[in-house]
Amino acid sequence: MTIRNTLRDHGQRYRPRMACLKKTEKVLLEMQDPKTGVRSQPQRLVITTIPHAITGEDIIAWLADRFQVDTQEARTFGSMLVALGYIYPLQDHKRLVIKPDVSLYRFQTPYFWPTQQWPVEDTDYAIYLAKRNIRKKGILELHEQEHYNRLHKWMNHKWDFIVMQAKEQYRAAKERKKPDRVVFDCQERAYWVVHRPPPGTVSAMDYGLDRLTDPNSDEAKTPDFYERIMIFTQQSIMRPRVKSSVSIGALVKYCGTYNNHDPFLFKCLPSNPWLTDDVTYWNLNMPCVEIPTKMRVERWTFSFAELLSDPRGRDDFRLFLKKEFSGENLAFWEGCEDLKWGEAATIKEKAEHIYKTFLARGAPRWINIDGKTMEVTVKGLKHPHRYVLDPAQTHIYMLMKKDSYGRYQKSPVFKDTVKKAICPEEHNFSVAQLEQNAKKRRPSLSPIILRQMEKEQRAKMAANVDITQVMSKLSKQGKEAPPPPKK
Amino acid sequence: MGKDECKTMLDALNKVTACYRHLVIALGSTSDSQNLREELKKTRKKAQELAVANRTKLTSLLKDKTISKDDRAEYERLWVLFSSSMDLLEVDMKRSLEIGQDFPLKVPTRHLIQTGMTGSTTTVAARAMSVQNMKYEADSTIDTVDLRDLQSEITQVSQMMEEMEMKVQVAPWAVEAKQEAGAELKSNMSVGNSSVGVISICEEEPKEEEGGGSRDAGIASVCAVLVFIVIIAVAGVLGYLVINMS
């Protein structure tokens, strides 16, 4: 089996690319064929008749026939065409879906087709809003009014141009005949519904951040370009390789273990909030919840990393270690994590604090690491940096993993938690209830508030530590003195 | 004076840019035709002439160090107008190249998009060229031949814009606009019957913004009809009495 070398495929790094756009354009062209394309009919309005209107059911029937799929899939595909902006609805223009009845649609002109290489300019949007203002005063909706005010503020230097251009475009549009004018207005409006969606809707062209370079353009063959290729090749030669039997075995094991815990692949209890708009699942799985769910507790038994990464699991483990009077290991590990991920300005004082609390001789919460690591750490602490405590942290981590973790799983603390863990019942919402849930959607707590809560919690814990320090000191006085660091 | 000359030239460039955009929007749709391609070519050439003329005028004005501060502010404003027009023009030219290549006219299996627009764009082009009627004299290969010209013209325009950036040191963000927000609302451009009719045609189900307008219009028309009926009834009664009496 050959694995294709992705050596020269620089395009793979540059995402996103909406490959669907080029493919959709081909389908659109097929739909235009007068014989084999979609059947079009004239749209009769009060005064005029405008040709080339197509009904939703015709589109769906044609798609189902062309791609040999069932109606539901054709309907989804049709909705995608409308959401992207290749076809626009004539009635109910703000809802970009396809309705399988006689509601009318029309094809969009190629200039207004969605494309990634021509970014949607705010100047054009400002001109469009100005044009609408000219046509009828007070016609702008609330979100459009807000956009208008914002653009006026940020594009103030161009505002003269925008007003002038809007007036000229308006006059130029009036030169055309009445039916064409109507069509043009509908086209432009549809274009902006796709690219500046009204609040509460999402634009289908919202593909995330644009990358700096276009993967399809040719790269200049500079020495730098060749140097990058050389480095890439050297690294691929030096890379250690794992036998596929081993790596695949690991993948299979992982999939087997986590299969039931993945909301994509298995139902999550009580119900997936993204599907039913009911946030019970998130409330039950908050970081500092009193009683965890059964699934969560099961995950703690998979690996030590899982236990530590879950804040509730860490709390439980901390409780267990407190009972065993070896809480300093976890505290040291947490301090090291804090140092690694914290602000650069606080590194020095954090490192000092950790040394005084955990590493110095006679420290209140002295940790038991071997002599060599201690030597290396103390030497490194003279010039502290972010990763100065890494060897010590790894040692303590392995100690906890090999020793305390096993005992924790057999301890009464854990068994108690397992017994108390709840298994919520599955929700069974009717369609009406689902709609109600969707209406009652509210945004969750702002991350600023969450961070503040975390800070308060940490401060509370730091205050608590003093008591346990005293306790552990008292208990240590009863036991023998800590052994001197071995050479 | 230099300023007024500049302003008229800029207005002309603005007009041509707006018309060019309208023409490019019609490309590839059912109102596309050989005439449209020719109109595009002519409009483009006119736009380029105006652009070059504007650029020489404005660069000479801005390079002059002896002008007053107010004058300089005014010229910078005109410069921003000019460069924004050129930005739009350049993008429209590039897009017309792309769409023109995708939709050749003479290939029978390549269909134009049925957008519902079927009328011609002669009047728009006539407006751009400031003539009464357009004359069409191009031959049938214009859609392919023109594209080559278009490519060279696009490179010309890009070069011109780069030169502009290098030669003239104007900070576009420092320019203050003369018009305030909603300036166009006070403009007395036609809010005539035709445009209101256009709106009500576009909205198949008159809702929200249309609901208010049409409700008022509805009440007014109902009242008018009632008055009319009353008058007719009175006239009928009087006529009947007259006939009875005689």
Automatic annotation (TrEMBL), chain A:
SUPFAM superfamilies: Regulator of G-protein signaling, RGS, Transducin (heterotrimeric G protein), gamma chain, Winged helix' DNA-binding domain
InterPro entries xrefs: DEP_dom, G-protein_gamma-like_dom, GGL_sf, RGS, RGS6/7/9/11, RGS6/7/9/11_DHEX_sf, RGS_DHEX, RGS_sf
Residues in DEP domain copies: 34-109
Annotated RGS domain residues: 303-418
SMART domains in the cross-refs: DEP, G_gamma, GGL, RGS
GO cellular component, one term: neuron projection
Gene3D superfamilies, per the entry: 1.10.1240.60, Regulator of G-protein Signalling 4, domain 2 (1.10.167.10), Transducin (heterotrimeric G protein), gamma chain (4.10.260.10), Winged helix-like DNA-binding domain superfamily/Winged helix DNA-binding domain (1.10.10.10)
One GO molecular-function entry: GTPase activator activity
Keyword set includes rRNA-binding: no
GO biological process: G protein-coupled receptor signaling pathway; intracellular signal transduction; negative regulation of signal transduction; regulation of G protein-coupled receptor signaling pathway
UniProt keywords, alphabetically: Signal transduction inhibitor
Name of the molecule in the record: Regulator of G-protein signaling 9-like isoform X3
Biological classification of the source: Eukaryota, Metazoa, Chordata, Craniata, Vertebrata
UniProtKB/TrEMBL annotation, chain B:
Spans through the membrane: 217-243
Cross-referenced InterPro entries: RGS7BP/RGS9BP
Alphabetical keyword list: Membrane, Signal transduction inhibitor, Transmembrane, Transmembrane helix
Top-level lineage group: Eukaryota
GO biological process, one term: negative regulation of signal transduction
Similarity comment text for this entry: Belongs to the RGS7BP/RGS9BP family.
PANTHER family, sorted: R-SEVEN BINDING PROTEIN (R7BP) HOMOLOG (PTHR21029)
Name of the protein this chain belongs to: Regulator of G-protein signaling 9-binding protein
Gene: LOC115004309
